[in-house]
Design brief:
Blueprint lengths: L24 E6 L4 E6 L2 E7 L7 E4 L2 E6 L4 E6 L5 E6 L4 E5 L6 E6 L4 E6 L5 E6 L4 E6 L4 E6 L4 E6 L4 E7 L4 E6 L5 E6 L4 E6 L4 E7 L4 E6 L5 E6 L4 E6 L5 E6 L4 E7 L2 E6 L4 E6 L4 E7 L4 E6 L6
Antiparallel strand pairs: 1-2, 1-28, 2-3, 4-5, 5-6, 6-7, 8-9, 9-10, 10-11, 12-13, 13-14, 14-15, 16-17, 17-18, 18-19, 20-21, 21-22, 22-23, 24-25, 25-26, 26-27
Length: 312
């Protein structure tokens, strides 16, 4: 499978009254359309042309970061205006991204290099690196500074100290882990395993797997509700979003969306799902668990992220 695959980077819903204006924005990358769309209050409010084949997207400190695996680069944009600020060259195939809240650095999974790098967000200088398993896909950073990496072809999650870039643990999961999402309290990490069609639940305190449960055909993106009660899983091959009860780990609902859903992120009681083959973003009401809209975007939407607050 090509490394130019998009994903879900989960950013918890935010209290907008105390945060900058950009914190109410959902960003969507369109791979074939080479565009970054802005979605606000449930509608597309604008977009920016970007370099070809953007894959994943992450936010931090008022900045938006896009990975270009085949272009060996990372785009940095201003979250408030959408203006492209700079393009950072990257030595490998940048795929998974994670940014601290201050936006001063950026963690990058090198799909073909089997490593994760910490870069300066200003000039792309590699500050530190660590070896991962094969084909590292998505990555997430917790508030304690630990970095979790889905080692897709090694069927495990690697955990690193983000400051020292030293390995803390290696956790076996299902087959071909790809998407990751932390619970709001960060006590649980959920892992979407695309070839075993299930989700592994990891205790982030003990760094051990607690359970692996069915989650629909090809779980490709993950998000967790703000109260931690529900796990939402995009099913690429089924055109659905599976909703799991976080306490019982049973399926609550399956929601039809567009074709080949991939990235997913939550904001203000809604889930936003990128439908790669439909060129749309599905909007799901989390109270009713129903799709309430489909928003047209540029060709090939794949990555979705919600802006974090902070100072650029």
């Amino acid at each position: 499978m090509s490394p130019v695959l998009a994903a879900c980077i989960l950013v918890p819903a935010l209290v907008l009254s105390s945060l900058p204006a950009w914190a109410g924005t959902v960003f969507v990358t369109s791979q074939q359309g080479a565009r970054l769309a802005r979605v606000e209050a449930g509608r597309v409010t604008g977009g920016t042309a970007v370099a070809s084949a953007p894959a994943t997207v992450a936010t931090g400190g008022g900045l938006v970061f896009l990975s270009h695996p085949d272009g060996h680069a990372i785009t940095v944009a201003d979250a408030a205006t959408g203006e492209i600020l700079r393009r950072l060259p990257y030595r490998g195939q940048a795929f998974g991204l994670a940014a601290p809240a201050d936006g001063r650095s950026l963690f990058v999974a090198d799909w073909s290099g089997n490593r994760v790098d910490r870069l300066s967000a200003e000039d792309g200088t590699v500050e530190a690196s660590a070896e991962t398993g094969r084909d590292p896909a998505h990555i997430v950073l917790d508030r304690a500074g630990r970095l979790f990496v889905a080692d897709r072809e090694s069927h495990r999650v690697s955990v690193f100290d983000g400051a020292r870039m030293t390995r803390l643990a290696t956790i076996p999961v299902g087959t071909a882990p790809f998407a990751l999402a932390l619970s709001p309290d960060e006590h649980r990490l959920y892992v979407g395993n695309v070839r075993s069609n299930d989700v592994t639940v990891i205790d982030t305190g003990s760094l051990t797997a607690l359970a692996t449960v069915p989650a629909g055909a090809m779980p490709y993106g993950l998000a967790v509700s703000p109260d931690g009660a529900r796990i939402l899983v995009t099913n690429q091959h089924a055109g659905t979003v599976t909703v799991l009860d976080a306490a019982s780990l049973t399926i609550q609902a399956r929601i039809g969306v567009g074709r080949y859903p991939e990235g997913i992120a939550l904001l203000d009681g809604k889930a936003y799902v990128a439908n790669w083959f439909s060129d749309t973003v599905s909007v799901i009401d989390l109270a009713t668990l129903r799709e309430v809209a489909r928003l047209p975007v540029a060709e090939g939407p794949r990555g979705v992220a919600v802006a974090q607050g902070g100072t650029p």
